[in-house]
Amino acid sequence: MTPPQPTYPIPFMANKLKPDYVPREELQGIIGHFLTRDDRAAITSALQGAGGYGKTTIAQAVCYDPRIWGKFSGGILWVTLGESPPDARAQLLDLYRLLTKSELNLTEINAIKAALNQALEDRPVLLVIDDLWRPEHLTPFLLNCTLLITTRH
User: Fold this and answer.
1) Within the chain, which residues score under 50 in pLDDT?
2) 126, β-bridge pairs
């Protein structure tokens, strides 16, 4: 008999955990942090550490916890920035498309953010911002949802 497949929140953008993944002890505390927060409050949390520490892997593990799926049933989104991030407008438009299954014909970033915030309204969503290098790169992604940020700084 085949075990039932997990039902992930839709959309679900986190990359799969590597087969050799070993849970870290800080994982339960991070998950607990999200589970004990008020559902109506947008939470911003960060995993900070040196390159290679495993911040991205820990964030992926958070996303794959079924308790997190229950808490963020509106979706688990993922944006990777890096030292030279891609165009934020394109990333925001992709998030909008995933959430609404429709296209948005806007080019001004504040208008895109407003439309995306409207799509997020009353929808429990976790947005992971992976590999943040500079605070100004975060600004476009300060949305009406819960954020988990990975950063070296």
Assistant:
1) 3
2) 76, 146
